[in-house]
Specification:
This protein is mainly beta and 258 residues long. The protein is built from two helices and 19 strands. The chain has helices at residues 2-22, 57-60; strands at 32-33, 41-43, 48-55, 64-70, 78-84, 90-95, 102-109, 118-119, 123-132, 138-142, 144-152, 155-163, 169-174, 179-188, 197-204, 207-215, 219-225, 231-238, 247-256. The strands form three sheets. Strands 2, 4, 5, 7, 8, 9, 11, 12, 14, 17 and 19 form an eleven-stranded mixed sheet that branches. Strands 10-13-18-15-16 form a five-stranded antiparallel sheet, with no helix packed on it. Strands 1-3-6 form a three-stranded antiparallel sheet. The radius of gyration is 31 Å and the shape is rod-shaped.
């Protein structure tokens, strides 16, 4: 009997030790979080908004929920906004990106008694900013070059491009499939001769997206959509024989993500 009692006591002690190693029970089932956004492409300076709901609704009301972001796979998640779940179980969270990069977002609800931490699915978001072509390396310049300033119809446009000859002129830029729009003011340089005219074109991967013939004193501002091309090309051709019409683009910019 003495041996049996000792064995029973040892078994009980072992069970107690096991319970101590295992620790407390889990906090319960994780929060169920939905997440959605109206647009996964955002322009720098705009506010990125996500909305969703948390279940179970009654347990989630009034509890904290956060928006997290990271730039690359090895980076830690960083909290960008926090709010409380409203009385309908919904939430709205916001961020205003400051760099035009690709990044990921998720929504996290911390654990409370009865519910484990919940994590939403991940959103892949691209943030775009207007980038001056002047700041990019140019390719294959033929009588057309970047210039620190260009005068068109009496206005000065910084960081522009312009033809410097009546011969057919062109210049190219690689934008590496990262840009969705182009904007700039097309015109004939004020340094052209009186009566000068030029035809100016823009191409996206060899497809013409703009062409116009303009005279000295005329300008044409354009914002053109791009289908994420590798390359942009601009050309200018003086038209009136013996009269120099130097075509150019004032402050051309592309809307790009890094």
């Amino acid at each position: 009997m003495r041996t049996l009692a000792i064995a029973t006591a040892a078994l009980a002690l072992g069970a107690t030790g096991l319970a101590a190693v295992q620790g407390p029970a889990t906090a319960g089932v994780p929060w169920q979080i939905t997440v959605k956004t109206a647009n996964t492409q955002v322009k720098l300076g705009d506010t990125f908004v996500v909305i969703g709901k948390v279940g179970p609704r009654h347990a989630a009301i009034g509890h904290k929920i956060v928006l997290q972001e990271k730039f690359k796979p090895t980076a830690p998640w960083k909290t960008q906004d926090a709010t409380k779940v409203d009385t309908t179980g919904h939430y709205t969270l916001k961020d205003r990106p400051t760099v035009n990069t690709e990044r990921k977002y998720r929504v996290v609800m911390p654990a409370i008694s009865g519910h484990a931490k919940g994590i939403s699915s991940t959103l892949d978001v691209k943030v775009y900013a207007w980038t001056k072509l002047y700041s990019l390396p140019n390719l294959n310049p033929r009588q057309m070059f970047p210039t620190a300033s260009l005068n068109l119809n009496g206005a000065t446009y910084p960081k522009s491009i312009v033809a410097n000859s009546v011969a057919p002129a062109s210049i190219e830029y690689n934008v590496n499939h990262k840009c969705t729009a182009l904007r700039g003011t097309f015109g004939v340089s004020d340094s052209s001769e009186t009566g000068g005219q030029a035809t100016i074109t823009a191409e996206s991967d060899g497809t013409q997206i703009y062409t116009n013939t303009l005279s000295l004193g005329q300008t044409d501002f354009q914002r053109l959509p791009l289908a994420s091309p590798l390359r942009l090309k601009f050309t200018a051709q003086s038209l009136v024989p013996g009269v120099a019409g130097l075509g150019g683009i004032g402050t051309p910019e592309a809307l790009c993500v890094k």
